[in-house]
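ok so I'm stuck.
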Amino acid sequence: MENNFDVIVVGGGPGGYVCAIRAAQLGLKTACVESRGSLGGTCLNVGCIPSKSLLNLSKNYSMASKEFDNLGIETGGIKLNLKKMMLSKEKSIQVLTKGVEFLFKKNKVTYIRGKGVLFSKNNVVVYDDKNVKKNYNAKNIVIATGSTPTSIPGIKIDEKNIISSTGALSLSKVPKSLLIVGGGYIGLEMGSVWSRLGTEVTVVEYLDHITPGMDKEISNEFKKILMKQGFKFRLNSKVTSTKSKSNSVLVEIVDNSNSKKETIESEKVLVSVGRKAYTEGLNLSKIGIKRDTKGRIEVDKKFQTSTENIYAIGDVIKGPMLAHKAEEEGIAVAEILAGQAGHVNYDTIPGVIYTSPEVAYVGKTEEELKKNKIDYKVGKFPFIANSRAKVNNETDGFVKILAESKTDKVLGVHIIGPHSGDMIAEMTIAMEFGASAEDIARTCHAHPTYTEAIKEAALSVDKRPIHF
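replied:
not stuck anymore, here's the structure
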């Protein structure tokens, strides 16, 4: 009986562990299988958490080195101790992963260490680190195995000179130069860390703009700000080959517009061209679970796969590869298994890039509204006109609100500026409740705060901002 469960969750990342905890809260006997050796998945171990730790620490170092003196804070010689910085990052990871273990115990979730393989729709075999196997039975199985970094032809990641985002989190010294393949969120965050610590950063992006899928106006402003910070960009270009030397990499780049070739030498190359669903070794084909052309597991609106009683959530299914999206799906599945009406509103899933300034968004972009022929109004307000941003010397960026022309309903919000990752929560809630721009404009915002820029942008939708 001890090996029989109502739910077995395969994968202990943000989606998996949240699903397991919620299922246990709802009275289901629950187990979670994780092969990494620690809970939290990519996010806590080699993704969201360590990268945010380094972004915060590197920003503090950069401010102390370049800005404090002008603000009347004279600190003397500033010295970087990268080893201590990395130890601080590791401590953050350990505290949080152990915290998830505590939550498992608190909620009576059985934590099974090892690699889970599905042998039937009710049977999971777990292989431990010594390859000893043990059988477990479940009425329902939830696959939450996440994703792994991808590469492109001509580039082989060795985690020495040619690195993935995982390698970029653990460099033992500050490289003189870093070439980033891909102008997406992860690459720009990692580029920001090392740029602040003294690395010359060059970004090569296949498209003619960075951050694909983001509102173009925000993307263009973001690029300008990063260039002011020292980033170099090679847009509309592709990397065709790399050749490793002893302490550097020769990278061949081709301009898409004229096919002109160029070779750049860089001490390190970071490959950041996206991630793919991790479903290796799960035995999915044998038990009849269908996948799409990108290798993602196909599910219905209730997250059920083509095999009865097996569900999938997070990065292994369609949608943005975001930890909080996986968490929402995990809770929804747990509630569905308990007979409730679990649901995820994909129109109100925010996204954040944790650079400085931060970039955040929720809902539709202006390009999407044009493509779908939706009439809309735009309201914008710059942080240079916001009093809190002014006194804190954080005036880059602006708030942009998109509202439907006839109903005034907020359809999308895009912010580039200080603390935008926190500020976007207000607009996510507003959109969840179907708020209009007028609703936001008539809501009292504390003064002086960054959030006043949201109110002013909402006023601007109706062409009546007060402070600009």
